[in-house]
Amino acid sequence: MMSEIQAANAIELDTHSLRDKLSQLASRESIHQWDLGAACSTDSSVQIDHGEAKQMKGAQRSSITVRVWNNKGLVGITSTSDLSEKGIEKALIGARQASDFGNADDVPAFSTLAKSPLPKLERPLRPAQGIQRMLEVLKEAEADLLSRHPAIQSIPYNGLGEATYERVYLNSDGALRQMKRSQASLYLFARAEESGRKPRSGGAIRLALGSHDLDIDGCIDEAAERTISHLDYQPIDTGCYLVCFTPEAFLDLIGAFSSMFNARAVLDGVSLSQRETIGKNIAVPFFSLHDNGLHPAHVGASSFDGEGTPTQKLCLINGGRLESFLHSEATARAFGVPPTGHAGLGAKVSVGPDWFEVSKTEGQNSANTHLQHSRSKETFVLIEGLNALHAGVKASQGSFSLPFNGWLVIKGERVSIEAATVAGDIRTLLNSIVNMEAEQVITPGGVSPHVWVEGLSITGEA
Amino acid sequence: MVSTYTPDQSLVHKAEALNRHWQPQLELLLARGRTAGADLVEVYLEQIDHLSVLAEQDTITSVTPSFGRGAGIRVFLGKQDGFVSTNDLSDAGLKHALEQALSMLGLEVNEAGRSSFNGLPNLRDFAIDKADWLNQCPELYEASDRLLNGTQLLDQYGTHLQVRRGSYARDWQEVLVAASDGTFGRDIRLHQSIGLNVLATDGEHRSSIGRRYGTSGRPDDLRKWDAETSAKEVCESAGTMLYADYVDAGQMPAVLANRFGGVIFHEACGHLLETTQIERGTTPFSDKLNQSIAHEAVTAIDEGITDGAFGSLSMDDEGMESQRTVLIENGVLKQFISDRAGELRTGHQRTGSGRRQSHTFAAASRMRNTYIAAGQHSPEQLIASIDRGLYCKSMGGGSVGPTGQFNFAVEEGYLIEKGKLGKPVKGATLIGEAKDVMPRISMCAKDLELAAGFCGSISGNIFVTVGQPHIKVDSITVGGR
Q: Is the minimum CB–CB distance between B481 and chain A shorter than 8 Å?
């Protein structure tokens, strides 16, 4: 059976052997300071088409990134998928060669927290079900979704997959981090078409620690509900609207502008924020934002970052006030604060968010708590999902102009919008939030309530 | 640069080349798969050597080399396929990957069985003259000097520049493809790209502009890059867009400039002509072969043969020689872009378009160099034909969804008023449906030019070229404020 094959073939990183090999090679090459990030994964997935298996995939991947400090203190790196002794040797030598081009003005060091205790993550490893079982499950899900409405004619984008991952960080100062996790995912995107009308689509995604744990019924229900709700569509007039973002849509938007909270971007001059923005109000007082890589619902959580710094919950905005930035070791040193556990591993270390948690500030309420997406009588646009964020967001300028899926809601009646874009400026948007609903919704990408914003420009085809 | 150290250009050891010495091992694998009952077995071996360099202001801030090897094994049974990728190229690793792929289709290796597989023919080696490409590429110090020269030129020509960046990427790839239908091909690919971008600021005004130049198969092309012209172009755009107003939204005619303007065809139509879209039932054109789907002014081509173009390749990732495919001729749909699975599942002949980012992806039908052919008009004639509309001089990225709705961003735009270019505008996103917009491309200019780009889709991120002459779209939705 597939699951047995996977179990037998799962790649495992031999951490101590890796460290010994690298230590010996580094010593031979007179490299006194080095660190290494390694990862490996084993995954399998299935896709189907009208009850028939279409493509089944499996993969074993492994990679290491070696970073060395040369005798001038400059840093170089090299990455490889070759974990053999020869591969590691080449990577080490390649990194030393690259260090000749290291940036003397910005030299990373080991994280001061690389040997601190790690947070405990309750993420038990789940066994794989295997290809055949996943095929059965996905076929049943497809059949169920197809049966929900006669207009749903196909599920063109579907997939069920499961994977195990392992990550290691170690350095010449004795730090050693290691973690394993499992993850499963299901996505179902349906396409519906009625005679004489344009095709419409809707979908849903679910993540879990293992494929046994996936909320398959919930995924089918949501995909069906979303697809059917877009069948009856109309064009929308171009104009300014009161807008309610679903949690998914709002998290996508905030994520696209995460350089506002990124110390690397601040130092590089490409963030909307500057050093002195800390402590300033950048959003309405009832808006708060945390980055919480430790949230129990964050399936892909990791207990340490690329430099071995422990993951933590970090307050970015509290009561509308910018409290802190995301940091690597180098940016933290430049700002005189501890690293926050958001680093990658590189000669120039990247910084990125883990998992956003958008919430209402404790003790603060908007004056518009009557705005509730499921029962408000106001006319508003409910934005379900934003598209083409890679093209329509200018993070360094603060502007966005994005196609979206959503509904025009008039007196509680929803009509799907045929095709439209929403445009604005993130700084203006954060100060134009008029309500945040009470319910915190967990999504694959973070936690957020529905967020209401006034005065956003919508362009329609009417 | 202060360093004069010259590292070895290649992190890949020459003795490890993927060549005909692999033939016996590959034949055993293919025979093993066929004996198990597979209709077809394909093995894709790859090794890569990548380098990227980043210059910020007047400093090299990141040098990132990487290398690696891997295999992707695909097994077909009927119209189904199983695909397994691995970094383990040992005998045992490859056998194991094959067994996994077979087991996905309910097949098992039969050690005692006999195979109808008759072995591989002579290797079609497209890499013969390419063995030294990597060593002919600019060395790291030279690439760094070129970048620093570029960022210095930005400083010279730009105003209000808060950030000046130059980046260089070199992707070298060696592939060996063998399949039980007798496919046995080898190639070496080399892609290099270099780009400049800036962030200009003045009080609340901000503009970010970038330009990228890329070629394939030309090791010394970085040396031919005209840094001065690139820097001037970027600085001029950034200066113009810094104080631009946001575009007024609405339906209007638009003229899209040549080169990267071709993203409209790439997103609005090109993806919908890939057989993967027919398989999924997500293209409105699946039953429109030999029917009109676009204005008669439109002839569109997808090919992999233009010398040096970013999307060119001697053979595709399924071992098929590249070719020129006329997709649309005078508005009539002539052919789809097809790969091995596409031919199997849709009946449309392969076009040498099976492409993948790396061994970790199964190949899929993907575009190569895709462009609208030159027409008869001058760009000025297109602009002069519009009373009020939008001129899109420079485009950002875009995408297309499962219902055929496409979008793309305009990086640098100008209003057209009474047949003339007016004030610059920013923040425009163009959206539409392929079926609707293709008949509205009513005029094509003579000035066809291509531009290098990257396309992310089902089989990963690949090198492509988009292109077109200036074109006029009679009406399109312009999203703005």
A: yes
